[in-house]
Amino acid sequence: MTTSQKTIQLALQGGGAHGALTWGVLDRLLDEPRLRLEGISGTSAGAMNAVVLADGLERGGPAAAREALEHFWRAVSNAAQSSPIQRDLWSRLTGNWGLDQSPSYLWFDHLSRMFSPYELNPLNLNPLRDLVGEIIDFDRVNGCAAVKLFITATNVRTGRPRVFRQPELSVDAVMASAALPLMFQAVEVDGEAYWDGGFVGNPALFPLVDECSASDLLLVQITPFRRTDIPRSSRDIINRVNEITFNSSLLKELRAITLLRELIAAEDVDRCCYREMRLHRIHGDDGLQGLSTSSKLNAEWAYLCHLRDIGRQRADLWLSEHWSDIGRRSTFDLEWLVEDSLRTSRATPEDKPRVA
After folding, report:
1. What is the DSSP letter of 111?
2. In DSSP terms, which residues pair with 162 in a beta bridge?
3. Is residue 161 a contact partner of residue 202, using CB atoms and an 8 Å limit?
């Protein structure tokens, strides 16, 4: 690493086809010679982006990693062309990327609420698994010394997170991280069944804090914390419940990091014992807010490129605005997460409740 380089860690959220926005962010970060990636934690689509990136890095450095990401998303789009779930003609004419008016999508959505994946797909066919296994060389991924990978899945029996690391990463580990319960059968790894990691870590931050040395952590967020509208349809309500659920564990970890940072500052805690994390965020809120849940299943190449371009622009903007902040201070303001705790801790004795 040259003296002009800066080192960061990445936390990549899941979100189906919206993961193409993360692809755009990674494409821009890999194109920045002054930046080095130490560790990546990913869930679902974030996990796929992470292993593809590591595969490319090990094969030929940042340029090969960028090529690998484009090849992967192109293959996803090509495979989706044979899917019966496609946009209807009116949506194509009006530029609506969602599938809400597609008869095939509506029929599939209806069936998934009545029958489990074990009933609808008893043979457990999964073209995405075949594609991931064909494209990604997991021997290279596990042998990649350039970046540490952490892939999160949810243990179905215990409800606890399982974080897969090198050299145990496999196609099953990645698919376990992306196994939405109403769409896919649970994935078995080492005799345990796993669902999508978003329930317990979207993505998990603690491996980056515990097992990496860089103090700058960049969250690439594609599941918004806040929605301006109140959901009223059944589909929108279910989507918002899922977003809240998938963000809850992330918010708890961010809150813990923020509280520790406040404690270090307020109590002058020995920094040799506790590492202060600097938090940053790139998000696609403006570009994703108007998209329906069904757009996460749209893998048309034009749409994926649209999301990629948004991600690349957001990353470029973040680098131009905050390059000097890396290594110095956080740029993701999380005071709102700890307002209640800080208000309690800073209250005077008269303000605090008395114990009878």
Report:
1. H
2. 153
3. no
Residue 349 is predicted with a pLDDT of 39
User: Which residue has 């390059």 as its token pair?
Assistant: 323
Distance separating alpha carbons of residues 42 and 207, to the nearest angstrom: 11
DSSP conformation class of 157: T
Whole-model pTM? 0.91
Say how many residues make up the chain.
Answer: 356
Q: Which residue has the tokens 């103090």?
A: 215
pLDDT at 285: 74
Question: Within 10 A of 206 (CB to CB), how many other CB atoms are there?
Answer: 16
CA distance 261 to 176: 33
Side-chain-side CA neighbours of 131 within 13 Å: the count stands at 15
Query: What is the C-alpha separation between 146 and 126, in angstroms, rounded?
Result: 31
For the chain of 356 residues, list the mean pLDDT of each consecutive stretch of 10.
Answer: 81 96 98 97 97 97 98 97 92 92 92 93 95 97 97 97 97 97 96 96 94 96 88 86 90 86 65 73 82 92 96 97 96 75 45 36
- Can you tell me the distance from the alpha carbon of 338 to that of 351, in angstroms, rounded to the nearest whole number? 18
Residues whose CB is less than 8 angstroms from the CB of residue 143 and which lie 6 or more positions away in sequence, other chains included: 58, 166, 167
Q: Tokens for 345, please give them.
A: 């801790």
Neighbours of 174 (CB within 10 A): 28
Phi/psi zone of residue 25: left (φ > 0), alpha (ψ -120 to 50 degrees), beta? alpha
The CA distance from 240 to 231, in Å, is: 7
* Whether 122 contacts 192, CB under 8 Å: no
Report whether the peptide linkage leading into residue 207 is cis, meaning its omega lies within 30 degrees of zero: no
Work out whether strand 187-189 and strand 35-42 pair parallel, antiparallel, or are unpaired: unpaired
Angle, to 10 degrees, between the axis of helix 45-80 and the axis of helix 127-135? 110
